[in-house]
Amino acid sequence: MAGTEYIEKVEDKILPLEAQVRHLTNELTLTKEEYEISTNNYYDIFSNMEQKVEARTGDLKRLQNVLEEKGRKLQIMLDSAPWMIFYKDAQQKYIRVNKQFVKTLKVPMNQVIGRTHAELFPEGKAGILDDDFEVFENGEPVLNKAGIIETARGRMPIMIDRIPYKDINGKVIGIIGFVTDLTEKEKTEKEKEELRERIARAEKMESIGTLAGGIAHDFNNLLFAIQGNVSLMLLKCDKTLYYYEKLKRIEELVQSGADLTRQLLGFARGGKYEVQQTNLNQVVKKISTMFGRTKKELKIYEEYDEKLWKTEVDKGQIEQAMLNILVNATQAMPYGGDLYIKTENALLDKQFVELNDLKPGNYVKLSVKDTGIGMDDATLQRIFEPFFTTKEMGRGTGLGLASAYGIIKNHNGIINVTSKKGRGTTFNIYLPVSKNGGKEKEKKSEVKLIKGSETILLIDDEETIRNVGAEILNEIGYNIIPASGGKEGIENYKQNRENIDMIILDMIMPDMGGKRTYNLLKEINPDIKVLLSSGYSIKGQATEILEKGCDGFIQKPFNIKKLSHAIREILDKK
Questions:
Q1: Lower CB count within 10 Å: N or C terminus of the chain?
Q2: Rounded distance, CA 149 to CA 51, Å?
Q3: What are 180's strand-pairing partners?
Q4: What is the pLDDT of residues 196-236, one digit of tens each?
Q5: pLDDT-based confidence at 422, cuts 50/70/90?
Q6: Residue 116 carries which DSSP code?
Q7: Where are the alpha helices (DSSP H) in 268-349?
């Protein structure tokens, strides 16, 4: 019994415990289910988040790729531009530049990005590129700002444009810059300016040449009047008389004056007389040897091209031109120095000859270089002007180089000069190559006085020339019919056609020039014999008339012997 009660008491105690155990078991079961549900929920949430993160990451990567591709394309586009281009942020740090930028400033790309201009160039190099203040201050573009920057190849003139870029509120957050290299433009402008100066100089020289030619013409007429009277006096003067030598001296001075005007005419592009095919080496050697004998203080170095092409020149005039250049070189080296003379063949292109109105092709080149004092630019600009001289009064005429210039131009050649103060001067002469195989002319024998008895129509607008000319011609036996100009000459010829054997015709006359007069005379009588006479040289209208069949030309001032010979030569033609 007691055992039974004990068991019952134990069971009574166990029953609540069982109930608690069942409750706990139920709770644990519930908690496990909740945990499983919760865990599943968390897993789902995490999985969704992971997918979203992956998706977002993918989107970001795609966006980054797009941006990188756009950046790459932008860089390619910037690098293909011929200008320097840069982007700066609000702190004025470079955030992008193109290849032209790094190439020009010679700075590696990786050293540029993220740095300011002052950090890149603390010494102030290319300072204009750092001048962004105005854009940040005003928020407006600053265009066409010129300046100079230092680059790997030296100073570079540039034009820079700065454009601000702003945020949505209009605040400037950076600058885009475009830099244009003006080197070529500046070079082109400089070349244009040089071309304009050269054309202006050529026109100036042409005008001065015309003036010089006019002076020479008038002076030659004056000299002829003097020469004519002296010739008449010498014909009637005994050689034993005191005045005979004085008259001969006057005649020599007239010749000196004629030489001076010949130089003027040489400058005026009218100084070519006896043209013949020539090896320039022979002319140059002759003058160089002669010059070397008289100028012992100079060392002359000569270099001749033995295969030098031949050219057609008036030897006397080319000798004169070279002599003038050598004299100039001597004056530039008063205490002695070196003189270099060189000949060679040259092929000149169109660009080289176009300003001289010549044709490209084969030319013979003569160079004369000295080690003298040289010339400054101002002197160099005027070196070929007649009467221009740097020497003191009375020490030079200023015609030497002007004459050389005219002589070479008259031979369809080119003469130019380069010089540096203290470093000497070089003259370069280019003469066209001969186009035919002509032979050199033989020297003429001494001209003697030849008399005649024919009738000559003398046409000249200057009374002094007519009077002296008529007196000279009468003295050597000719009958003279004078005419004061072209119109009177035509009328006189019509009235005395049967009696007139020959006409001496002046080229330059006011009412009717020599060319027009000649043409009208030829219409009247195609066989009429005409001797042209002028204070100008044979170049120009005289050459045109001679090519039409005119019989001869004589340049004032001429002496009585030359005139008599020229007349007789024409009259004796069949």
A1: C
A2: 56
A3: 159
A4: 776 666 666 666 666 766 777 677 777 877 887 887 787 77
A5: confident
A6: B
A7: 280-294, 315-332
